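= Protein in question =
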Amino acid sequence: MRPDQWNTITRAVRGESAAIHTALIVDSPWIPPFLGLSTERYIHDADVHFQANVEILQRFPDLILFPGFWVERGMAAEPSGFGAPVAYYPNQPPTIRHIMADIHDVDRLVQPDPLTDGLMPDILRQYRQTLPLVRDLGMDIRVVAARGPMTLASHLMGVTEFLIGLKLEPERTHRLLRITTNLVRDWLDAQAHVLPGVEGILILDDIMGFLGEADYLEFGHPYFQKLFSVPVEVKALHNDTPNPVSFRHIPDLGVNLFNFSHMVPIRELRDMVGDSVVLMGNVSPLDTMVNGTYDEVYAAAANCIEENGQHRRFLLSAGGGVSMGTPDSSIRAMLDAATAHGGGTE
């Protein structure tokens, strides 16, 4: 991320930015096929990964890639630390196989170490290799990312099994969430240790949106609070489920930037979270950005800017990550809409 782009993020967090800028969460599902690369090469070859990210930045210099130069392995990094087997494919991100049949298997889980276990040491090695190259371009890696504790739990045992365990075995569920929360915290710390310019975190967790409010407050909120208690300037949460029960509790987590679903109207979400949180959204990533024309994406982006009104804590984005198959025209339509309707660049 360039210094001016990081300044845009932090000014939005502080409520100082008068212009609307476009920021997109991009990773291995979108970048390799967009550039005509195999996902396998993008993931395993550090030079290919670096050059691909640079090419995206050169094509779209006004676009903020969030978190930027993200070294990820699909959903596999954190589960692999527990010994979850990883399956690789030429043209899609890797997947993992569950290692827990049900919640009772938490009794045999061993707390992983990000420095030694699974794919995480290799990711740290790649960050060490990439950081000097990024800095040679006058940029830095400012944000580290991790899947959230509930998403990680669901990757270990399956979503249905996790939700059943939550209702039938609350004590074991809390034990599992303590383990996954500790791994997420340690993984963020390990990344920040090899990336000394880090001033922000991104937690991605959709499973928190699968719960009713009482279950969220018992099984979700305390663990997310622990993660977002770290002393960094930008505390970002991605949850693109449309379930609103956790939304009004987001400020209490310490979250100051929220990437949310295109199915949640901006005005309604603003009423729930208040004025202290940067809303990052919410053009439909599939129906509009993948399948829409330039004009349709432009209109959707302009509508988001209009719906945001005069709030300074806003970044134009997809209502989720950028989906595989999103064309050049959709990115350019969002950038053009931000320039025309959002006050341009500062």
